[in-house]
TrEMBL record:
Membrane spanning stretches: none
Signal is among the record's keywords: yes
Keyword Signal: yes
Keywords: Signal
GO terms for cellular component: cytosol; nucleus
Signal peptide start and end residues: 1-21
Official protein name in the record: DUF538 domain-containing protein
Length: 163
């Protein structure tokens, strides 16, 4: 007996229940997906071209054409790899990979983001920083962050001490 018919049955009937992939205009965007888990769109920079999500586990990947870096004047430098991943659930992003922040002279991986009421807590493992949700209503742009038109939104440097 050939495995081909079993593979076709799995692909068309079983696999769609495990994974949602946003590659066409009918699928929600990565930004609207964030909102469905109670996160603001601005924790992802503009430019996500696709994503996949395993709804049963919350495991996700978000894809950019290239890596994405930008500085927030008077604050941080951020770097997103071309693929970021982690686990998403209501008010939590955990086991994140592919996102780094420069604090003083060190690059640290952002490993977790938790929403608590109207604040977001960003953890780099050894320390964390809280920011008001209103600072993330808009997505930054690769290359220029929020300073693309001479306007800067996020100017605090909160990662210097442990919480």
């Amino acid at each position: 007996m050939s495995l081909l018919p079993i593979s076709i049955i799995f692909f068309f009937f079983v696999a769609p229940s495990f994974t949602t992939a946003a590659t066409n205009s009918d699928s929600p965007t990565a930004y609207s997906l964030l909102q469905s888990y109670n996160f603001p769109v601005g924790i992802l920079p503009k430019g996500v071209i696709s994503y996949d999500l395993d709804k049963s586990t919350g495991k996700f990947h978000a894809y950019f054409n290239n890596s994405c870096s930008f500085a927030l004047q008077g604050s941080y430098q951020l770097d997103y790899k071309s693929t970021i991943s982690g686990y998403i659930s209501e008010n939590k992003l955990t086991k994140l990979t592919g996102v780094k922040v420069k604090v003083l002279f060190l690059w640290l991986n952002i490993v977790e983001v938790i929403r608590k009421d109207d604040e977001l807590e960003f953890s780099v493992g050894i320390t964390s920083a809280n920011f008001g949700i209103e600072e993330f209503y808009e997505s930054p742009q690769c290359g220029c962050g929020f300073d693309c038109n001479g306007f800067e939104k996020l100017t605090r440097n909160n990662f210097v001490s442990s919480s």
